Amino acid sequence: MFSKVLVANRGEIAIRAFRAAYELGVGTVAVYPFEDRNSVHRLKADESYQIGEPGHPVRAYLSVEEIVATARAAGADAVYPGYGFLSENPELAAACAAAGITFVGPSAAVLELTGNKSRAIDVARAAGLPVLASSAPSASVPELLEAAEGLSFPLFVKAVAGGGGRGMRRVGEPAELAEAIEAASREAASAFGDPTVFLEQAVVNPRHIEVQILADTQGNVIHLYERDCSVQRRHQKVIELAPAPNLDPVLRERICSDAVALARRIGYTC
Q1: Rounded CA gap, 268 and 270, in Å?
Q2: What's the rounded Cα separation, in Å, for the pair 186 and 114?
Q3: pLDDT digits (tens, 9 = 90+) for 83-98
Q4: Of 155, 177, 201, at which residue does a domain stop?
Q5: SS3 label, residue 210
Q6: Is residue 112 part of a domain?
Q7: What is the per-residue pLDDT for 162?
């Protein structure tokens, strides 16, 4: 068990983490940019340190180098990223491992795998989970147009990297596909530094159901049931409901079991 944790986040996320650490008898470290010098989360930790440059508050919370350096200087033997910011960044997980610091979250290898949608689909397929028809990833418009001949419309053009609905286009007709691929690829390159996209079968009138997973480092994996994230704007979740309303109990169990199976397959821990 670690003795002191640096929380690489702000606001309510950090405050909840500090409270949990306090209840476990673990010391706490807060970080904050100049603009957050009066934020409450800074006062809820045992220690707090300013990071980053004035005028760039978000950049401060995204600095792997500063987060790890601050943890080492404060004597923290764990870093917890919360959600958002660096929570899905394999560079932070790898840097913590290199520094001998516990990263409270998945390993860098798991984050790299799940951060690539196309590779994640391949792993899910290998684990026996039902997946939608999709193409191989590519940045070539001709290659993707050829791959589309084996798919039925509508379909999605999706960036392999990132999330938040960026680098994603729904295409209803073949004549619209080339332009959609180019637009999604440009956006993906701008947002994530990777222009690679792939094609995936679109589900008409879908429900977006997510399953929360809890997995320790001893091989124990459980689910904490599901949440419905179907209310979206530009493919970005707006409202989440838990439990998902009007979901068939048999289907709920299948979805949750599949989520646990995939987490086991990739060696997920959190």
Answers
A1: 7
A2: 22
A3: 889 998 999 999 999 9
A4: 201
A5: strand
A6: no
A7: 79
d(CA 55, CA 75): 28
- For the CA atoms of 257, 258, 260, 265, the dihedral, rounded to the nearest 10 degrees, stands at 140
191-212 tens-digit pLDDT: 888 999 999 999 989 999 999 9
Pinpoint the alpha helices (H) of the chain: 11-24, 40-43, 57-61, 64-74, 90-98, 108-114, 117-126, 141-148, 177-192, 249-266
Residue 10 is assigned to a structural domain of this protein? yes
Distance between CA atoms of 74 and 28, rounded to whole angstroms? 10
Residue 253 CB coordination number (10 Å):
11
**Neighbouring residues of 189: CB distance < 8 A, sequence distance ≥ 6:** 195
Q: Point out the domain boundary residue: 201, 217, 240.
A: 201
Catalytic residue status for 237 = yes
Q: How far out from the chain centre does Cα 99 lie?
A: 23
Q: How many angstroms separate the CA atoms of 217 and 1, rounded? A: 12
Establish if 111 belongs to a structural domain.
no
How far from each other are the two terminal CA atoms of the chain, in whole angstroms?
14
